[in-house]
Amino acid sequence: xxxxxxxxxxxxxxxxxxxxxxxxxxxxxxxxxxxxxxxxxxxxxxxxxxxxxxxxxxxxxxxxxxxxxxxxxxxxxxxxxxxxxxxxxxxxxxxxxxxxxxxxxxxxxxxxxxxxxxxxxxxxxxxxxxxxxxxxxxxxxxxxxxxxxx
Length: 150
What we know:
The chain is an alpha+beta fold. The chain is 41% helix and 25% strand. It has an eight-stranded mixed beta sheet with strand order 4-3-2-1-7-6-5-8, with helices on one face.
C-alpha cells in the first residue's frame, strides 16, 4: 500500500531515437545545402538547420543532463517536469512493455511528461508500485501501444 510518496528515476522514452533522427535530418540538410544553387533555398536550409540544431540541443540536455523522476503519492502523481496530477485527472495507465503512460481524461494521447521508462535499477519495483497505485486509485492498467508527442 502506498502510504507516503515514492519517487523513481525515469528515462525519456524517445530521446535517443529522436536525437538520431535529427542528426540524420541535419546531415541531409547539409548535403542539400551544398548541392543547392538557389540563394533563397540555401537560406531556407540554413534556417531549418538552426531549428534542428536547437531541437538536438534540447533533446541532449533532457536525456543526459536532466535528472527526470516520477513521484507516486496516495492519490496523485508528480510528473517528470514537476506538474501535479490528481488521480481524478487520470483515466487509465498504459503499459507498452516497460514504457508507461498515464492517460488523462479528455485527451487522445499521453502527455510527454507522463510517459517514461524506469531506470534499470528501479524497473521491477517501479512497475510493481505503478500497478499498486492503479489498484489503490481504481485505475485500469492497459497493456497496449500508446502515442505521445515528441
